[in-house]
Specification:
5-stranded parallel sheet; Rossmann fold; alpha/beta
């Protein structure tokens, strides 16, 4: 059985809802009469009935639970309440004639918050009920406050990350303005690198480094790979013909210029920024070659940082399939053949093998971010 002993008009202060559980009608009446002037009171004369009310509206603030009941006793009811996510946080006070220390300890072990022995003393019951409700109100307030704060922090973090991403792309676009024919190059190479890294993640050579978070940072930093081109004179950067040896020497300095600019940004930051460290590696060494014949430092093999190795392949593939002032775009299959032919020379062999495995995805990315021809 159940009944509502307190009705309050809309807008009145919230009234706590209590559930009294006892198989003896007289005990239900005594407790209900004691509590009803202050609280909304529901009663149940069995464990199963109590569990049904606990899962229904209105949501309970406190349960006063008899231990010795036929069928499902109070210990069984409490265990079920704690196992149910919908009721696990509802505080339970045992009200029982059992006064042995071991009985009281068992109740606390199961999760009861207090233990009142019969015959009840009204002032003690009222004081303990109020104390538990005050504590529950404080817990609920903290829980709600934490939820609000977490939402605010999450929203602020999302805003910061968005600003960060926009700033990165703005810097990358700055480099693009010097070389307008690159079009969607930064989107394509960013996606190529992320695809390669994701595919390589289980590989034993790469798995210690390529965590999910690291791959996110790697993708975030990839657009800055050619930021150093802002320091290359237009007559060299935009020259339609073959560069002279002197011009090529100047062109190659974009790797150093890019890494130095990013390193300066690192020094200006008040604490380390993970993606900047990766971006610096990419900008500095993405023109190195597996066999040591690249620039600017002639690094070879595993001495070349992983991010730079991935960008090296992504950058070359995209350059091959893209139109430039000095060449038309190359068909995808022809570009694929060139990449494969450079396995173990220009590129890390495992990275090339991974490229072959995800080649169709590279083509999809190229089509998705294609330049107007």
């Amino acid at each position: 059985m159940s009944f509502n002993l307190s009705l309050f008009p809309s807008g009145a202060p919230r009234v706590a809802t209590l559930l009294v559980v006892d198989d003896t009608p007289e005990n239900l009446t005594v407790l209900a009469d004691l509590l009803a002037p202050t609280y909304r009171v529901l009663v149940a004369n069995s464990g199963p009935r109590a569990l049904r009310l606990a899962e229904s509206e209105p949501r309970l603030d406190l349960i006063l639970l008899d231990v010795m009941m036929p069928g499902m006793d109070g210990y069984g009811v409490l265990a079920r309440l704690k196992a149910n996510p919908a009721t696990t946080d509802v505080p339970v006070i045992f009200v029982t004639a059992m006064s042995a220390v071991e009985d009281e300890q068992r109740g606390f072990d199961l999760g009861a918050v207090d233990y009142i022995t019969k015959p009840i003393r009204p002032p003690i019951v009222l004081a303990r009920v109020k104390a538990q409700l005050d504590m529950k109100e404080a817990r609920d307030w903290l829980k709600n406050k934490n939820a609000v704060l977490e939402a605010e922090v999450s929203a602020r973090l999302s805003e910061i990350l968005l600003i960060q991403d926009v700033s990165i792309h703005a810097l990358a676009r700055l480099a693009e303005t010097r070389d307008p024919e690159t079009g969607n190059h930064i989107h394509r190479t960013q996606s190529y690198v992320q695809t390669l890294a994701t595919q390589l993640r289980p590989h034993p050579r790469f798995s210690p480094l390529l965590s999910a978070d690291y791959i996110d940072q790697l993708a975030k930093s990839a657009p800055l790979h050619d930021i150093g081109k802002v320091g290359i004179p237009d007559q060299i950067l935009l020259k339609p013909g073959k560069l002279t040896a002197e011009e090529w020497a100047i062109m190659k300095t974009h790797a150093r210029l890019g890494s130095e600019a990013i390193e300066q940004a690192e020094r200006d930051a008040i604490k380390p920024v993970a993606f900047l460290a990766i971006a610096k590696e990419i900008a500095h060494w993405h023109h190195e070659k597996w066999d040591g014949s690249g620039y600017p430092d002639g690094l070879a093999g595993d001495a070349i940082p992983v991010p730079a190795r991935l960008m090296a392949l992504a950058d070359v593939f995209d350059a091959l399939i893209s139109r430039r002032v000095y060449k038309p775009p190359m068909p995808y299959e022809q570009a694929r053949g060139i990449i494969v032919a450079e396995r173990g020379r220009h590129f890390d062999p495992d990275v090339v093998d991974t490229f072959v495995a995800v080649y169709d995805e590279f083509v999809n990315i190229a089509e998705r971010y294609g330049d107007a021809q």
